[in-house]
Amino acid sequence: MKHWIVIALLLLGGTAMAEPVDWQALPAETRVLLQPFANQWAELDADRQRQLLAAVERFQALPAEQQQSILQRFERWQALPPATREELQQRFQEFRQLPAERQEAIKQRYRWFSSLPAEERAQLRSGWQALTPQERSVVKERFRKATPEERRTMRERLQRRLNPLR
């Protein structure tokens, strides 16, 4: 009998902790940060509400310049067309399912690309976009099979081709 009482108390305690939070009961600063969720707040389950509130707490604990950077990125994200956001979310999920070493290789390439001057990045992008899908597949396959040293050489050749003054 005692076990049932303990189980009942645990269950009741769990449901009491998981009750939804009323939007109007949130502090004004929190409502401002969660504004994108205002219309659907009442429909969110209590766990999702708690996750969002925890994220707000973590955000508020950050330095002001970091908060500003996050808000700017969020505004850029919100400005994207829904189809683009959906595609990016899909690609992110695919990335998360890759093995850790493949993820790291992609991150390294991103860091390399990001380290280039803006003009070179733009030239590389336009050069890549000018390729046909078949040509892109060939380039991807060559890079995939190349050693790190061969990749570096290939990148240097590509940069020289796109920027002969270099």
Query: Which series of helices and strands comes N to C?
Result: HHHHHHHHH
Task: Provide a count of the helices.
Answer: 9
Mean pLDDT: 84
Q: Helix- and strand-based class?
A: mainly alpha
How many domains make up the coordinates? 2
Radius of gyration: 24 Å
Q: How large a portion of the residues is in β-strands, by DSSP E?
A: under 5%
Question: What can be said about the biggest beta sheet?
Answer: none
Gross morphology is elongated
Helix content: over 70%
Span of the ends, CA to CA = 82 Å
Architecture overview:
The chain has 166 residues and is mainly α. Helices cover 75% and strands 0% of the residues. The chain has nine helices and no strands. It has helices at residues 2-17, 28-33, 46-60, 64-79, 82-96, 100-115, 118-130, 133-145, 148-162. The longest helix is centred in the first third of the chain and has 16 residues, at 2-17. The N and C termini lie far apart (82 Å). The model is unreliable at 1-16 (pLDDT under 50).
